[in-house]
Q: What sequence folds into this?
């Protein structure tokens, strides 16, 4: 389920980088609410998207495009299996387009939260068809788990909330004996918090009273230490059936910013997503240490490419469906293809 977004990070001016010394990272965003109307035409007409959709359809045995289009108005389908596959397809197809049309050649890649699946695929640690199968099987695994465990849990996003104010709100939950976990550290004053849905409205009201703002709420919930049993279930029932390869590009782990160059590290990251919080500032620090000056955000994003932690450190290039569909860019790409 999702709540209407009450506010979002305001876009800041990105820092330009020197073309002579620029080093680029391809970043795949986490999955937030996104609409078919924003990406439908891209999925239908872009050659990269059409190719990937055909592969995805063959893997899952249904039309991802049709199912996504038909469920667009259904809030319960915002994070459904087919929606996840559509998001994965959009992100990777946009990265394909950026390489072909804009000439982007990244030195490494990263993917906070759900974006890690696109990142490991782009890096060559899993073939696309295997990542589609992994996404479908993990979606079913999560759904089964949350039907039986933590049935009331959700993950909520808060912004403009200083850490001391967040801790004050969480301490009040502690005093009431209410469970909670911090599931994500995005930027200064920007957090993901997992808690029980029955106390969500009261928590949101308290955040507002403390001067913070509420964004959206996610189900199934994510990245909470309380979900260690889900990690074990995913390892035993799903990921054990996949062969992860060494990535051809280094991948920045979203739990601690570690630079991953081997298969075991990638596999651990994919499992740790269930019960370890994401830490975008650590990822930014690693990219800076690796000399990255420009990040291409490939996919629907109103978060990671907009927060201060990102725009204060990099030139940010948004690679989205709207940009890819601009006639001027498509014509320029066609001219290059004819040469």
A:
């Amino acid at each position: 389920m999702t709540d209407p977004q009450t506010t979002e990070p305001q876009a800041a001016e990105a820092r330009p980088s020197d073309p002579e010394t620029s080093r680029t990272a391809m970043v795949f965003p986490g999955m937030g609410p996104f609409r078919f109307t924003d990406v439908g035409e891209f999925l239908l007409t872009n050659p990269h998207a059409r190719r990937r959709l055909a592969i995805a359809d063959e893997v899952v045995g249904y039309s991802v495009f049709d199912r996504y289009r038909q469920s667009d108005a259904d809030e319960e389908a915002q994070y459904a299996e087919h929606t996840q596959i559509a998001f994965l397809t959009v992100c990777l197809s946009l990265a394909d387009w950026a390489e072909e049309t804009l000439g982007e050649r990244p030195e490494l890649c990263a993917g906070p939260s759900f974006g890690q699946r696109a990142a490991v695929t782009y890096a060559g640690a899993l073939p696309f068809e295997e990542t589609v199968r992994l996404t479908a099987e993990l979606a079913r695994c999560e759904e089964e788990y949350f039907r039986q465990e933590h049935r009331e849990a959700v993950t909520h996003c808060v912004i403009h909330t200083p850490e001391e104010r967040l801790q004050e709100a969480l301490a009040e939950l502690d005093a009431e004996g209410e469970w909670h976990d911090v599931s994500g550290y995005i930027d200064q004053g920007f957090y993901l918090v997992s808690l029980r849905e029955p106390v969500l409205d009261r928590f949101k009201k308290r955040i507002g009273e403390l001067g913070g703002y509420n964004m959206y709420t996610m189900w199934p919930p994510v990245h909470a230490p309380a979900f260690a049993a889900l990690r074990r279930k995913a390892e035993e029932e799903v990921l054990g059936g996949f062969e992860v390869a060494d990535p051809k590009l280094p991948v920045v782990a979203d739990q601690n910013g570690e630079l991953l160059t081997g298969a075991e590290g990638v596999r651990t990251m994919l499992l740790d997503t269930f019960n370890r919080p994401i830490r975008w500032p650590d990822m930014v620090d690693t990219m800076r240490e690796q000399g990255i000056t420009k990040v291409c955000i490939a996919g629907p994003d109103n978060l990671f490419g907009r927060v201060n932690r990102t725009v204060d450190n990099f030139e940010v290039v948004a690679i989205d469906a709207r940009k890819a569909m601009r006639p001027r860019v498509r014509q320029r790409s066609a001219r290059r293809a004819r040469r």
Remarks:
- The radius of gyration is 19 Å.
